[in-house]
Amino acid sequence: MKKKLIGTARGILKADIIFKNAKVVDVLTASIYEADVAVVDGLIAGVGEYTKADKIIDLKGKYICPAFINSHCHVESSMAMPSVYCVEELSWGVTTLITDPHEIANVSGVEGVSYMLENTKNMPINYYVQVPSCVPATPFEHSGSTLDILSIAEIAQMNGVLGMGEMMNVPAVLSADGDVLAKLDWFRNKPIDGHAPQLTGNDLQGYVIAGINTDHEATTWKEAKEKLRSGMYVLVRQGSASQNLKAIMEGVIAEDIDTTNMAFCTDDKHLADIRKEGTIRYCVVKSIEMGMKPLKAIQMATINAARIYGLKHLGSITAGKQADFIVCDDITKFENIAVYYKGQKMERIVANRPSWNIVINGSVNIKDVTKSDLELAKKEKYPIIKMIPHQIITDKEELSYDDAMAGLEKGDICKIAVLERHHATGYVGVGLLKGYGLKNGAIATTVAHDSHNMIVVGTNDEDMLLAINELKNVQGGYTIAQNGKIIDTLPLNIAGLMSDLPAEKLINRLDDLTAKAHEIGVSKDVDPFITLSFMALPVIPKIRITDMGVFDVESFSFIK
Amino acid sequence: MKKKLIGTARGILKADIIFKNAKVVDVLTASIYEADVAVVDGLIAGVGEYTKADKIIDLKGKYICPAFINSHCHVESSMAMPSVYCVEELSWGVTTLITDPHEIANVSGVEGVSYMLENTKNMPINYYVQVPSCVPATPFEHSGSTLDILSIAEIAQMNGVLGMGEMMNVPAVLSADGDVLAKLDWFRNKPIDGHAPQLTGNDLQGYVIAGINTDHEATTWKEAKEKLRSGMYVLVRQGSASQNLKAIMEGVIAEDIDTTNMAFCTDDKHLADIRKEGTIRYCVVKSIEMGMKPLKAIQMATINAARIYGLKHLGSITAGKQADFIVCDDITKFENIAVYYKGQKMERIVANRPSWNIVINGSVNIKDVTKSDLELAKKEKYPIIKMIPHQIITDKEELSYDDAMAGLEKGDICKIAVLERHHATGYVGVGLLKGYGLKNGAIATTVAHDSHNMIVVGTNDEDMLLAINELKNVQGGYTIAQNGKIIDTLPLNIAGLMSDLPAEKLINRLDDLTAKAHEIGVSKDVDPFITLSFMALPVIPKIRITDMGVFDVESFSFIK
């Protein structure tokens, strides 16, 4: 093998393909030069002058640029099955994904992570996993699975696993909790992702010295700069909800800072948004529009991410690297690109149906629910979860019994319930939601961060029960019920998180459901399903609901 | 341990020392900011605001800069014992050495390498070894030792070994020689140093794809740039003999190239030169004088080298790194610096006498030599090794028997002999040398690249024999004989390469010997001992002499 590579690099042996007359995007020196690129056995054999090959492609001066790396993403958040997601990423030039299967791990544990790897193992993409470090995310809800240190170690041994996923349990790190230190120690000398929004000063130093390497939560340049200076790699995030590119890159450009330790990521980006503009490609193009030198932006999208994650075989157009690259006319726009993975051109493909070797459906397991489960206990005062337009943070209100009932009557307030859906324990939290806008009917989802129990919102118990049972029948998804009938359902039967539909169909179905939810009153300022899915996440201010009850984030306790 | 670090980083626990009011040289963002640096247990605990410590040092606005890394050096070439060499490097801010003990390995094999590590293991320096890959360097001479793959593997297991040293056998790499590929394979995923002067085009691609990571042989910017583009790390060399800094950095500055993959090294630098100006410090200062941004030059001297050699605990002033740094007033000059290793200030120390646990003297083992061994075979024509002023390359001449004898008579020509000195095999090569200038007497050395046999030059056999026997008696060194008497001798009794004298004494003694050699006629254009030591290296044009005879480098064969 090495002998063949050396012979091909030297031009003595025939290459498989020679790309003649390329402009090589050299991310090592941050410059461009003209050369041929020889490919053999899926690797770049050499860059220079080459003539001997089975196939010669004349690029006539087009660019050859290393393919992009998405340095942090939760594939499940696309609601597409992983192989479908990969196709969308590939079509915009991403051939490497660093994924954190945190969502499915909360539902299905080791088996869920295994499914993600299995489903993508024949895809033309470098699919890497960071082992979820914090499952369950909080002790204030019941998840489907718990990843203890041995489960984490079991996943760490799987092919395609690089290191440890985002360490969200900042307080445990800072208090030097033994279990958390043991997890960190397991992955020492491997990449360990952080998750430390707004952490600053000495506490940030403590978090870094614990051994955490990256952070993708910076929302301001000030925060990003402090994290860079602390020694962290900063992954600039541009997803569908969290969009930090502009704020951070403005600072980078203004201060002409060294970007060696920076890369791009999406965290969560929806399928429709990806299809429209890509992921990392969008970050590159926007950064260049903002004034970044093109080569510097491309470094962040390629070699920097490869270096951060120790992927020595990726990230540049040099001898011995995997032949993953983009061919295009304009490296400031990256439109009409051709994408090569291991030297083969990727035509837009329809992803395979999921591999059912590992059965990951059958994840909705709830105890029979009756009206009495959805009853609000009679109290003097009720805490109200108040949605804020275009935000996932909430406000907190308190109403008397009479006012709450009046609000329910008028339709200002809906009932919201979270049902434990993994082990049929019968846990149900019931509360009141303001600002959602639903006028008549019920809406339910099994996507409910982070434990992914079932959330149902409704104006009457009958439609709520109908929606609950519909999601039980289809084993997870989105559903809308009204006047005793199911209006529409999108099954998400892969762990109750993902659909097995092809991308275009899935995008259309998501649009349908969203439109129908708005038709029955859900406010235009709220995403009917996505915003809803965050109402169960008990770490975001100010008030949430889990299967264990209504939770006050500020006092970090349930409201009796 | 981790718990203590986290507590100290957070400012809850006391640090050992706090350096207040520092200007932190941040090589990650390439910028400077004001902060305190807390140190505990030899590590940087945190950078920010700190108050609790056993000791507080107010830096009053001085800089704290990461200490320097010399990314490639042959310590033996200083002729000081390794611990003495370390003191000289330390005093100019180098706390990390990536060494290639190629010289001593040629004399003493595994034991020699072990000695270098043993002799420095208690020194306040990070002393790393790259395992010599090419011992012996050529088949045209007899070395003291041969490092086969198992010897290499044995060294690879020693503490302090990082990867493989310079792969000088370029033809074997390019012909995909099995033994060489096996060596490279042994060190896959570890740093492998290259040594490929003037290698270019497809052959360079072949050398890179074989798995070689670094090169320090580029002498022009064109060569350095091609190597960078090929994917190699370029170590810019500035030693006593080979000085490539100016040529390369001029190009870097003119083209504003990315320097992420570049570092500085010395290869070979003499003790007197180090004492005068330092090693890496000199590279930084000169680069800045030439127009390099100070932070960029400092990156090359610190974090870049750490990254290239996978030294994750070194290279920056950030929490968790080893507390190796320089405190100074001016980061463009680095004069009057204070050097800290593991948080402790290094006072100029007298290095210990060598550790004799591993006996490395007794390396001069020659068969008894008589006049007849030094006799020139009678031939029609004699090849003459012609020294060129201030160069180590030589010219080739041919003289008739009569002309050669007349030259010897007049003193234009000297006799030169190389004697196998490791295993008393009795091999002696005898030839004629022009341009050395010696008028009366003999000069001998056991430093003779790369096999380090004994070289003796003389105007008469009696003095030559005297010099030979003197070096046998002192077990290696430099000596000068005249009129049947030894004028002066510097014993180099550590492998015949290094002295156990303290640095200042050694520098003085080297000056003495050099002056005395010039006094008895050696040309001012020739370094009496150093230039001589290269006359036995059969890979440098055009003509050399080994213990096996006079060697024509162009035809790569001995001259009969």
TrEMBL record, chains A, B:
One of its GO terms (molecular function) is adenine deaminase activity. It is an enzyme of class 3 (hydrolase). Residues 63-333 form the Amidohydrolase-related domain. It comes from the Bacteria. The keyword Manganese applies. Its cofactor is Mn(2+). It catalyses: adenine + H2O + H(+) = hypoxanthine + NH4(+). Its EC number is 3.5.4.2. Residues 392-556 form the Adenine deaminase C-terminal domain. Signal peptide: none annotated. Belongs to the metallo-dependent hydrolases superfamily. Adenine deaminase family. HAMAP family: Adenine_deamin. This is Adenine deaminase. The lineage of its organism: Bacteria, Bacillati, Bacillota, Clostridia, Eubacteriales. The gene is ade.
